[in-house]
Design a protein that fits this description.
The complex is a heterodimer.
Chain A (H helix, E strand, L loop, with lengths): L8 E4 L5 E6 L8 E6 L6 E4 L13 E6 L2 E6 L8 E8 L7 E3 L3 E5 L1
Parallel strand pairs in A: 1-9
Antiparallel strand pairs in A: 2-6, 3-4, 3-7, 5-6, 7-8, 7-9
Chain B lengths: L2 E5 L3 E2 L5 E8 L8 E8 L6 E7 L4 E3 L7 E6 L4 E6 L8 E9 L7 E5 L3 E5 L2
Parallel strand pairs in B: 2-11
Antiparallel strand pairs in B: 1-3, 3-8, 4-5, 4-9, 5-6, 7-8, 9-10, 9-11
Classes of the chains: A mainly beta, B mainly beta.
């Protein structure tokens, strides 16, 4: 089945830009979705279809996807952004159509 | 307001069957727009998709769990359920139910999640 690879951790100072990557074979040909999960809470969709934001998600959150890497970018990082972020794809041609990355812990220094 | 709520035993013995129900409120589970899914997360680990069901009863399962998983839907109760048989300690996880939808380029985008329920497999 398709494999998504994320770095275990990313650290950034408040006010700076955080970039969280999600690697996969030719991931640029797929739509990537991103979830934020705070401790003890359910995941929340923050970006879908590579770069679209659900209602209520700040414009500071954006996404891109090309080649073998998708990226979630968080501008002007705040302490409240500290969480685990997971990417997900839908692989319509696979018998395992829903795949999640292993998650990245974002630490705000 | 849309809500999903998982319910079921928090402790299951090894080799027995795990059974959970997700009660949906605020939207009809019979809607042709949405799919309904189960996702789990072992302690300290990432998310794992278990499977999904459409209002018609059509299902898709994670191949690694397919031999042990059944997902069903009860439109009269606005609920869908998960059965996982022959559980082991490796099935210990927080189990989430979620609503999925399709965009113009993808499906099974999970936009609403239940709060999750911890199921521990132990004797």
């Amino acid at each position: 089945s398709y494999v998504l690879t994320q770095p275990p951790s990313v650290s950034v100072a408040p006010g700076q830009t955080a970039r969280i990557t999600c690697g996969g074979n030719n991931i640029g040909s797929k739509s990537v979705h991103w979830y934020r999960q705070k401790p003890g809470q359910a995941p929340v969709l923050v970006v879908y279809d590579d770069s679209d934001r659900p209602s209520g998600i700040p414009e500071r959150f954006s996404g891109s996807n090309s080649g073998n890497t998708a990226t979630l970018t968080i501008n002007r990082v705040e302490a409240g952004d500290e969480a685990d972020y997971s990417c997900q794809v839908w692989d319509s041609s696979s018998d395992h159509p829903v795949v999640f990355g292993g998650g990245t812990k974002l630490t705000v220094l | 307001q849309l809500q999903l709520q998982e319910s079921g035993p928090g402790l299951v013995k090894p080799s027995e069957t795990l059974s959970l129900t997700c009660t949906v409120s605020g939207v009809s589970i019979s809607s042709t727009t949405y799919y309904w899914g189960w996702i789990r997360q072992p302690p300290g680990k990432g998310l794992e998709w278990i499977g999904s069901i459409y209002y018609s009863g059509s299902t898709h399962y994670n191949p690694s769990l397919k031999s042990r998983v059944t997902i069903s839907i009860d439109t009269s109760k606005n609920q869908f359920s998960l059965i996982l048989s022959s559980v082991t300690a490796a099935d210990t996880a927080v189990y989430y139910c979620a609503r999925g939808y399709c965009s113009s380029s993808s499906c099974l985008i999970f936009d609403y999640w239940g709060q999750g329920t911890l199921v521990t497999v132990s004797s």
